[in-house]
Design a protein that fits this description.
Length: 287
């Protein structure tokens, strides 16, 4: 080969990795993305969709779990509330009964227990037993002629006192209402009257009976006491005997109904005497 001749150029193939690196350095990434093949863009889009679908499915699962926990909490709260109220309803009357009984026991025991304590006798309940025995003896003694005479003499002195006599008379009327003797001062019968308007009725107690006389006629009236505040405050009505309904309950049962606010009311009430029988009885009383 001659010295003046040029040497033929030899092309050495470059590795594909080097070509890709050089292309990345020369061509901007945006252009590469623009000239990418449709299949490549479609693959990238599907990857993005998968990435977006994954958070949405995770949030739906979290929302479902949250709603499930809230529903479970509501069910547990409702069940616990019902059971708690059931326990309160059952235990409340028991607690009140024990409390009132214990208070009554301590109150009655307090009359004679100081006397026994002064004598050096400390026996639990001895004052209560003594008080009950004393009340029984007073009841037996006052039922006799001598006891009634002493009681009448004591009432004569009490009724001469300006302020004490009003308290004694009111308390005596209340105690006479539940007296087993059913004397003239006690509630005679439990009745139902139409009050305060047509279609409404009220419980009352007959305290006395009067004869209302007019110019040409007379009418048999009943004095009916209708309690408005438990038993010791109420209204008095003069009701015709024809308008009085007599149910099949005693005076004690009527007092229990009034004191309990109607909770001890029997489910069925029957009338002891019909209207024709009442009219015939009134006519016989007038004759």
């Amino acid at each position: 080969m001659a010295m003046g001749e040029a040497k033929p150029s030899v092309l050495i193939p470059m590795p594909s990795r080097d070509r890709d690196r050089d292309r990345d350095l020369l061509v901007p990434p945006a252009a590469v993305a623009t000239h990418a093949s449709p299949s490549t863009r479609a693959g990238a889009g599907s990857d993005d969709d998968d990435d977006e679908s994954k958070p949405s499915s995770a949030s739906a699962a979290a929302a479902a779990a949250q709603s499930g926990r809230e529903a479970f909490h509501k069910v547990v709260h409702s069940w616990a509330s019902k059971k708690f109220m059931t326990g309160c309803v059952i235990l409340f009357p028991i607690a009140v009964t024990f409390y009132v009984t214990w208070w009554f026991f301590r109150f009655v025991d307090g009359f004679f227990s100081p006397i026994y304590a002064h004598l050096g006798i400390n026996i639990f309940g001895l004052g209560f037993v003594t008080s009950i025995a004393f009340i029984f003896v007073v009841g037996v003694f006052m039922s006799s002629w001598l006891g009634a005479s002493i009681l009448g003499l004591g009432e004569w002195f009490i009724k001469r006192m300006p302020f004490v006599r009003h308290i004694y008379n009111a308390s005596k009327q209340i105690s006479a209402a539940i007296s087993p003797d059913q004397n003239k001062h006690a509630f005679k019968e439990v009745v139902i009257i139409r009050h305060p308007r047509i279609g409404e009725y009220a419980f009352g107690f007959i305290t006395s009976e009067v004869l209302l006389q007019g110019y040409s006629s007379e009418e048999h009236m009943c004095c009916v006491y209708v309690p408005t505040n438990h038993l010791y405050i109420g209204d008095i009505f003069l009701v015709s005997s024809n308008d009085v309904i007599r149910p099949n309950i005693s005076v004690r049962e009527g007092i229990e109904i009034v004191v309990s606010g109607g909770m001890s009311m029997p489910q069925v009430l029957s009338i002891l005497e019909s209207e024709p029988n009442q009219l015939s009885r009134i006519r016989s009383n007038r004759s």
